[in-house]
Amino acid sequence: MATLTRPGAPTGPELRRRTHPIKVDIARALPLTPAIALLLVFLAGPILWCVYAAFTNTALTGAGSGDTKFVGLANFRAAFSSDAFANSVVLTLVFTVLSAVVGQNVLGLALALLQKRSVAVVRTLVGITVIGAWVIPEVVAGYLWYAFLAKDGTLNEIIGTLGLGQNWLYTLPIIAVSLANVWRGTAFSMLVYNAALSEIPAEIEEAAEMDGATGWARLRYVTIPMIKRTVTTNLMLITLQTLSVFGLIYTMTKGGPGTKSQTLPLYMYEQAFSFSQIGYGTAIALVLLAVGGVFSIVYMRLLRED
Known about the structure:
Helices cover 75% and strands 0% of the residues. The chain is mainly α. The longest helix is centred in the N-terminal third of the chain and has 35 residues, at 83-117.
């Protein structure tokens, strides 16, 4: 007996999908199961363990190594009452502002502006030089700057005859590591601004120039407002990247002399692996994560206002 079907009504596979949507969704999700499992084990797992360890007395040696106990907020209270921790927070902010917010951001924009107006040969040479510094491993870049700024380094060989030679890694350690981070990380900002500047229509800049706007006025009233969102995005990315810099500083100064260049990542490493206080070290790591979160919220609010 023939079955009457309403015109436009679902039939065949479409009808089965509508009838059993949950089964169809599960079948589609099955190929993703290995990837989800790997993410849970290798990404979410360590993060959750760090959160747990931050509230315990976990240690590599001593009492916490054999009998781990829940200590509540004791690790955080110890951190916020420590002068060494406060010194590390201040140095982290100084290092981030000097090398990322000011150094990499401003120099990257300046290089992108100069490249836009230069000939192809100069643009290529500058690009290769700056990106070359970027692709060098962090430890290698740290050793290069150590060899340049050390007491018997290249810089003192050049200016020593003028009586200006000194151990820059001892007298100005946080400035020295900030300069090294600017040198290594400026390429990222330069590439970001190169892409943003290429999107500005030439007609707008030509119209401003015909109206008598100087180079500074065009930059202030035309270029910067048109790439404002890119500036904010770039600042957020390089700030988060700079907050976690470890190898560069460790190679150049190991946080010294004393604690004059000991940023939060180095302080965390010292507490966790030199002093074996894993619980306290992971508490410092969570504080560093919170600092990055504060910076991210500020930049996200700026992006929304734009």
